[in-house]
Here is the input.
Amino acid sequence: MQYANGMQTQERIFETAKNFMYELGYKNTTYSMIAAKAEVPVGLVNYYYKKHELLERIYTDFFKQIDYAIMQQDAGPDNTFQYHILFSRIMLTQIFRDPKTRKFHLEINHNNLIPKSIHTLVRSRQIAIIESFHQKMTPQYYYWCATAEYGARRELIQQNKDISVDSPDFLALASLLSTITMRIAGLSPEIIDENTEKANELYDLMDCSKIKMF
Here is the structure.
């Protein structure tokens, strides 16, 4: 087989890897499986993507879908906090709605494999929220807040791995997970509740059915 079109080959490798990870999970997907299915040498798979880079792109592409869907709304969030809550609600709902996507994310969450670039993105948005409400904190204190938030999020997701997206408890969980850092940072309950309510109203107006990790 000729590999004249590198972009097409790269995309074929990615889509093949993505399909395997959806069906088998992250750790059970191997370079040799991807290479055989994509009909390329194993070395070419490794050339285009390290395994953690495949994972990073899966999450990044998923996040881009969510951002795009929010930006297409006629009436969008009023501030960065509402945007963050709405984004988190969509993300968690679409992950938990599909059993295989849920299983995949639980594996990544349990094994602490969330890509660093994703952490960086989320934390940059959290900092913007904190600054927009004139909350003052040192970088060290923010790091403590972010660490506490990550640990709580990770544990809560694992403890509620069987929760139904249609249950009232899921809405409560999604709202809590998107506001943990702000609560730790000292944002008032009134501000948190007001922005959570508005974000959830915006969510109810959206059609998120086409947003998928896989």
